[in-house]
Amino acid sequence: MVGNMKKLTMVCIMFFFLCGFTLASDNIIPKDLQEYIDNAEDCQHFAGEWDSHLSDERKKEIENDIEQYCTKAKLLQNKLKEKYKKDTRKIEIIENYDI
Fold this sequence. Notes:
Largest sheet: none
Keywords: Signal
Shape: elongated
């Protein structure tokens, strides 16, 4: 009886381990999509920092950051929309950002 319980316990552990691994592997984001997400988030962050009351120097720094990250995000957005046009999950991620 104890031997059967150990076997059943091991089978359950293996089952849950493999199910967890399968679910985790489905959530892996490709590098190009992660690069887009990073740039889009930085773009939105710096766009939100801009304020007319900032010093001219700080405004210029923020404008440069916006140019860097938003330009890259827009280029990646167009490229990835085409690449992943048949993957609704990835398209949903891409369209989540207003660039």
